[in-house]
């Protein structure tokens, strides 16, 4: 189905709106620890994160964009109504969870919306199960890997700081946390912005605007990175509060371990083309550093509510995406 240029531009605008909200919603993942440890003031932290969000395209390839564009639902069934349903499902779920300060996954909201709209159009046969399998596995693996890496880093930090006073440890890691926050923001920008790149690219592909070959145009890369960076600059303070202080209290050394463990996890996933959730990753890492101190240091009731949101996100965004697809299909008849 070929659409007008005006409608194409409008759909790309909706995609970039989602990317902006992704940055707004997931700013907490990049800056919660560095804000809660008072290494940076909130507004300085979002500028720091936004810069590294933006330059991520220069560091990573576009493997995640390829996965989202071709590896979730069959690219042949993609049309403007499917894209609209996917984006609206993700945007609606992001707004709901942001309103209530719930750190759900923007990434999985988008994938859930895409699955819901795609299945609504063409049934289960439209699903690329290998890509969905990797994404679902990442729901469990990314927080687990983040947790384990953060625990290991806590041990390394403790061993390397034996001869330092508590004030000396604090001073060292206040500086190092600037680097770990930058690395985490880089990983966040590299993985999350690519999901919107994949959506815009598959829309262009469906309209025959890529010359028959699926590739991500450079202007799409720049616009998606810029939209996410602007969203990050706008902050997401309710979620920052949940991530930075409600799960567990953090010192600069613990913040460094959580951010570094999360960053390594995101780097590995992005280079492997796996669309993971930065929210899941940093939550697992924060729980890891809290548990290293003592199990009671983690507010498990808060952590359990976050896990429930992870499980609900895919089906909830999928149902909303399916409803918006049906509405768009009805209006276009």
TrEMBL record:
One of its GO terms (cellular component) is membrane. The chain crosses the membrane at residues 46-65, 77-96, 108-129, 136-159, 302-325. It is found in: Membrane. Keywords: Membrane, Transmembrane, Transmembrane helix, Transport. GO terms for molecular function: phosphate transmembrane transporter activity. It is a multi-pass membrane protein. One of its GO terms (biological process) is phosphate ion transmembrane transport. Pfam families: PHO4. InterPro entries: Phos_transporter. It comes from the Bacteria. This is Inorganic phosphate transporter. It comes from Sphingomonas liriopis. The lineage of its organism: Bacteria, Pseudomonadati, Pseudomonadota, Alphaproteobacteria, Sphingomonadales.
